[in-house]
Amino acid sequence: MSIEREIAHDLLSIGAVFLRPDEPFTWASGIHSPIYCDNRLILTAPAIRTAVETGLVNLICKHYPDAEVLMGTSTAGIAHAAIVGHMMGLPMGYVRSGHKDHGRGNRIEGRLEKGRKVVVVEDLISTAGSCIEVVDVLREAGANVLGVVSIFTYGLQKGIDHLAAADVVNFSLSNFDAVCEVAAEEGKIKTEDIQRLKKFRADPSDESWMRT
Predict the structure, then answer these.
(1) Is 174 helix (H, G, I), strand (E, B) or coil?
(2) Beta-carbon neighbour count of residue 184 at 10 Å?
(3) What pTM, to 2 d.p., does this model score?
(4) Distance (Å, rounded) from C-alpha 151 to C-alpha 157?
(5) For an engineered disulfide with 121, which of 14, 81, 99, 110 has Cβ 3.0 to 4.6 Å away?
(6) Where are the alpha helices (DSSP H) in the chain?
């Protein structure tokens, strides 16, 4: 079984990714979604946590062998960056969503010297906006950002376009297609739901998938 499918199974088994095409969730933006992601649940499942962190280590070793520092996204990426950094013997830090309002007003937490080769650790890629913001902060601080590793990606076109425009490369352990396929095989959704889910992924603002 591929790593994408293995992680998809793991995420589905603990409800970190949940598919509900007939009872859609509502995003903060008001968009109705057949999928809900809460990768924080990975931290409460030791065996799956080990599989995920090992997978992230392997992604970094394969795609970014020159990595010198790991930087987590706030807040969900911090724990994963810390665990992976420990496993790899690499320093880690994280980027705040905004400047601290006290002390030195840091946006970047942890020691980061200019020119250091950095990999960003993210839990979820949707439109990639928050991830790119982190990369921008690190680049402004003089870091050489090699790219991003993430646990799961929706594969939204908007996210793909944003990453390309910002010259950011991301490698994810699992993805929307793998989750849909594994969920159907395991009876969590109907096979015919896959096309509805992919229609949502193609354009989340088009809710016609809800009526098919």
Answers:
(1) strand
(2) 17
(3) 0.93
(4) 18
(5) 81
(6) 3-13, 46-63, 76-88, 129-140, 157-165, 176-185, 193-202
**CB burial string 156-178: b at 16+ within 10 A, e below:** beebbebbeebebebbbbbbbbb
Residue in 159, 153, 156, 155 with CA at minimum distance from that of residue 173: 153
* Measured CA distances, 119 to 35, 92, 201 (Å): 28, 10, 27
Q: Which amino acid is at 212?
A: T
Distance of CA 55 to the CA centre of its chain: 13
Residue 36 tokens, joined: 């809900």
pLDDT of residue 85: 98
How far is 163 from 69, CA to CA, in rounded Å? Answer: 21
CB atoms within 10 A of CB 137: 17
- Tell me how far CA of residue 66 lies from CA of 27, 34, 36, 185, in angstroms: 38, 38, 34, 38
What pLDDT is attached to residue 97? 82
Q: Which amino acid is at 116?
A: R
Measured between alpha carbons, how far is 80 from 56 in angstroms, rounded to an integer? 9
Cα 132 to the center of its chain, rounded Å = 12
- Pick out the chain residues at pLDDT < 70: 98-105, 212
> The dihedral of CA 1, 198, 55, 41: what is its sign?
negative
